[in-house]
Design goal:
The chain is built from four helices and four strands; from the N terminus they run E-H-E-H-H-E-H-E. By secondary structure, the protein is of the alpha/beta class. Strands 1-2-3-4 form a four-stranded parallel beta sheet. Strand 3, helix 4 and strand 4 form a beta-alpha-beta unit. It starts with 8 loop residues before the first strand and ends with a strand.
């Protein structure tokens, strides 16, 4: 579905979906991933395994506080909430 949009799109995740990372990495139309709840606990995997131009919108959770998100990503390719 993302391939029909000329500028690609984003997917919203709220569970464990890291098994799909190889496919998502290769999707030219995937521009961003938004994580909530359980998916946010895997932000290190998304950050390290997606391409450099694929942005992460991360909502912190108990298992992944905003301080840890900033530490892992060094503020690159991630948009944490305020």
């Amino acid at each position: 579905m993302l391939s029909v949009y000329p500028y690609g799109g984003m997917i919203h995740l709220c569970g464990r979906h890291t098994q799909h990372l190889p496919v998502w990495r290769d999707m030219k139309s995937r521009r961003a991933v938004q994580t909530n709840d359980r998916a946010s606990e895997d932000v290190d995997k998304y950050f390290n395994e997606l391409r450099d131009h694929q942005i992460l919108y991360v909502n912190p959770c108990d298992g992944m506080p905003v301080e840890r998100i900033r530490e892992m990503t060094q503020g690159r390719r991630v948009v944490p909430p305020r």
